[in-house]
């Protein structure tokens, strides 16, 4: 179906803020893991665990964050130190958003899903392979 060993990128056909929020809510419910982090560039360039919940961040998604939405089928993704303490390689879907600014902080959302959910994801949302 897809070439071996390379990531496959998708985008929403006509992204709206409501659709981005909807896909992030759906992926959060179905994810293996969801990471929400933030960066306060005036203090550090290292991301930290977010001080806000996913729902609070989704309320602040704006047009400026739309270009930073992504859906990637990660081929041969290594879960080491992300989901497990052991080397574990598998294909996963990463759905992410960055560029959500609240105050002086930028927030990042990453949801990881089993690759088998790609079919459901493409049926529910208008994703186009790039």
Question: What would your notes on this structure say?
Answer:
- This protein has 130 residues and is of the alpha+beta class.
- The chain has one domain.
- It contains 3 helices and 7 strands; from the N terminus they run βαββαβββαβ.
- It has a 7-stranded antiparallel β-sheet with strand order 3-2-6-5-4-1-7.
- β2 (33-39) and β3 form a beta hairpin.
- The radius of gyration is 15 Å and the shape is globular.
- It starts with 7 loop residues before the first strand and ends with a strand.
- The mean pLDDT is 88.
Key attributes of the depicted protein:
130 residues, alpha+beta, seven-stranded antiparallel sheet, 3 helices, 39% strand
Contiguous uncertain segments of 5+ residues:
none
Largest sheet: 7 strands, antiparallel
Task: Quickly count the domains.
Answer: 1
The computed structural class is alpha+beta
End-to-end span in angstroms? 14 Å
Order of helices and strands: EHEEHEEEHE
List the total number of helices: 3
Radius of gyration: 15 Å
Q: Which whole number gives the mean pLDDT? A: 88
Q: What's the count of strands?
A: 7
Work out the strand percent: 35-45%
CA-based shape: globular
Strand order of the largest sheet: 3-2-6-5-4-1-7
Helix content: 10-25%
In terms of topology, how is this protein built?
Blueprint: E1 8-12, H1 17-30, E2 33-39, E3 48-49, H2 54-58, E4 69-78, E5 89-102, E6 105-114, H3 118-124, E7 127-129
Antiparallel strand pairs: 1-4, 1-7, 2-3, 2-6, 4-5, 5-6
Summed up, what is this model?
By secondary structure, this protein is an alpha+beta fold. It has 3 helices and 7 strands.
């Amino acid at each position: 179906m897809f070439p071996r060993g390379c990531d496959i990128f998708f985008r929403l056909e006509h992204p709206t803020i409501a659709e981005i929020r909807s896909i992030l809510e759906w992926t959060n419910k179905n994810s293996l893991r969801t990471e929400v982090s933030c960066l306060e560039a005036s203090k550090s360039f290292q991301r930290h665990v977010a001080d806000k919940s996913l729902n609070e961040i989704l309320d602040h998604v704006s047009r400026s964050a739309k270009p930073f939405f992504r859906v990637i089928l990660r081929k041969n993704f290594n879960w080491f130190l992300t989901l497990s303490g052991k080397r574990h390689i598998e294909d996963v879907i990463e759905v992410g958003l960055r560029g959500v600014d609240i105050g002086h902080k930028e927030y990042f959302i990453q949801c990881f899903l089993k690759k088998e959910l790609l079919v459901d994801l493409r049926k529910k949302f208008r994703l186009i392979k790039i």
